[in-house]
From TrEMBL:
Belongs to the class-I pyridoxal-phosphate-dependent aminotransferase family. One of its GO terms (molecular function) is transaminase activity. Its EC number is 2.6.1.-. This is Aminotransferase.
Length: 395
């Protein structure tokens, strides 16, 4: 038999392993490293949610559900989205439960995109978006937001849509990974005015919706209900990353097609996770608040520390990331700097380049970490900056 790799799908072989996962694995393999790479809450899942999962196990609720998800869960999620964001979805026809938002993105793109299509993605962005679109032989078109404080402007959006007639979908994430920026309702209304002029899908990844600091999150699905496929879930809001619960919502006809891909990929999400999610949606309306208050404190301390070291960061409106511009006088190669920090200081920070266009020369720091880790990271960064700035000035 010839090399088996030569017999495999060449488009899959061409996909690179996600750099963020490789770097995180490298950090975890080094004892004593302060790890600021991880994009997940460091809080435990609330007890009442864990108890619901235990009860499901004890009552042998361990069989398949229908692919779209347990109907009690979907009803609870529909009420939660209505009460939180004034969204109105029919849980029987306009919602499905996905294996986290990651699978929601994958199934949605597979249902929407065809060979030769283009998909518009603001960048820097979460790293799975481009490779996911490639499975359908669609081409990602990246909109570099680094010159506009990492926000999409209506002018940018209209210009690129008017000059790229093959764009079939706009994949929008806010609050945004990796920058933490978000959008006010007036800003979203201006974007919606542009989007409704075009026959395109709007795929709105709002997984960080509950982690918003300055203003109440407003969903783009409220403004463009006929165009928007809303993706949300419990990973960030209820510290349930490992439970793998996402929700995809949209018009009935669209959700039915996405569900075809979803059921082929998963059959159904774990019944234990669904029991926990039902409890979270029913009785966890305010579970995020203490986490949010703590994140805000951590953000402010980390931001202050970085600014004293001459890193520039847009002030995050949400999520739990800082996207820091490397100061002048230091090597602007963010990948080299991140590796150097790991090797010499025992500090793990992700290079901005991993997140695509507009990310070069930046570092992403997650403050979903303990206060001790945050203070330790500031100290280690300070030592590194002092040493390397002095070295560059002495040359």
């Amino acid at each position: 038999m010839k090399n088996p790799i030569e017999l495999m799908n060449p488009e899959v072989v061409a996909i690179k392993q996600q750099e963020i996962f490789k770097f995180n694995a490298l950090a975890k393999s080094n004892p004593g490293v302060i790890n600021m790479t991880v994009g997940e809450p460091n809080f435990p899942t609330p007890d009442h949610i864990k108890l619901a999962a235990i009860k499901a196990i004890e009552e042998n609720d361990t069989r398949y559900t229908v692919p779209e998800g347990d109907h009690e869960l979907l009803r609870a999620a529909a009420k939660y989205l209505h009460d939180k964001y004034d969204l109105n979805y029919d849980p029987t026809t306009e919602m499905i439960t996905t294996l986290g938002v990651t699978e929601g993105v994958f199934s949605t793109l597979n249902a929407v995109l065809s060979a030769g299509d283009e998909i518009l993605i603001p960048a820097p962005c979460y790293t799975i978006y481009g490779p996911d679109s490639g499975f359908d032989r669609a081409t990602p078109v990246y909109l570099d937001t680094s010159k506009s404080e990492f926000k999409v402007t209506p002018e940018q959006l209209n210009e690129i849509l008017s000059t790229h007639p093959k764009i079939k979908a706009f994949l929008f994430n806010y609050p945004t990974n990796p920058t933490g920026v978000s959008y006010t309702r007036p800003e979203l209304e201006k974007l919606a005015d542009v989007l409704r002029k075009y026959d395109i899908f709007v795929i709105s990844d709002e997984i960080y919706s509950e982690l918003t600091y300055k203003f109440k999150h407003y969903s783009l699905a409220k403004l463009l209900p006929d165009q928007t496929i809303l993706l949300n879930g419990l990973s960030k809001s209820h510290s349930m990353t490992g439970w793998r619960i996402g929700i995809a919502c949209g018009p009935k006809a669209i959700i039915a097609e996405i569900n075809k891909i979803h059921e082929l990929a998963t059959t159904a999400v774990s019944t234990i996770s669904q029991a926990a999610a039902t409890e979270a949606y029913k009785n966890g309306f305010d579970d995020t608040k203490p986490m949010l208050d703590e994140y805000r404190k951590r953000r402010d301390i980390l931001l202050s520390g970085l600014e004293k070291l001459d890193f520039y960061c847009p002030i995050p409106d949400g999520a739990f990331y800082l996207f820091a511009k490397i100061p002048e006088g230091l090597n602007q190669d963010d990948v080299a700097m991140a590796k150097d920090l790991l090797n010499t200081e025992g500090l793990a920070i992700l290079p901005g380049s991993f997140f695509g266009e507009g990310g070069a020369g930046h570092l992403r720091l997650s403050y979903a970490a303990s206060m001790d880790s945050i203070n330790g990271a500031i100290e280690k960064l300070g030592d590194y900056v002092k040493e390397h700035k002095n070295a560059s000035q002495s040359v």
